[in-house]
Amino acid sequence: MVDKSKDETFKATETADVYETLRENFIKVVDELAKVQPQYSQSVSNLQLDYIQAIKNTIYTAFSAQKHLTNSNQGTWNSTPSSVPFVEQFAKQSNEITNNTIRAVGINNQLTINALDAARENLKIYNKTIDAVTEFNTNAAKAWNSFFTTQQQQFFKH
Predict the structure, then answer these.
(1) Entry pTM
(2) Exposure string for 27-45, b = 16+ CB within 10 A, e = fewer
(3) Where are the domains of the chain?
């Protein structure tokens, strides 16, 4: 006669070992991702800084070339006398547009930071929810197993 309780205990142990192995393997993968995350973030940050520098260089070069072209060909580019009120108005409007753009970028940055902070808070809530659901499911499984075991014992007694 085969001892059924030993066989069931062995299967339960094997199943628990499989879950433990899978859990550990997933944790290893996440740990490896966490190791490279700072390098990844630094590379993205460096790329952003390089783009910013490239944009600044493009602006500087474009305006330097225009200024040089205008200054070297006075007769061609400056055939009409410049209007001082026009130049002053243009400079004033350009400054207003620049200031408005800077304010808009600041507001956008604050909104983005707030959204990222909200996402972090949502992840914390999500983690707490997962913990609560896991605890509930574990307790429900334990209750079901207890009930099922009790029912089996009563069934086999009769």
Answers:
(1) 0.60
(2) eeeeeeeeeeeeeeeeeee
(3) 1-76, 83-158
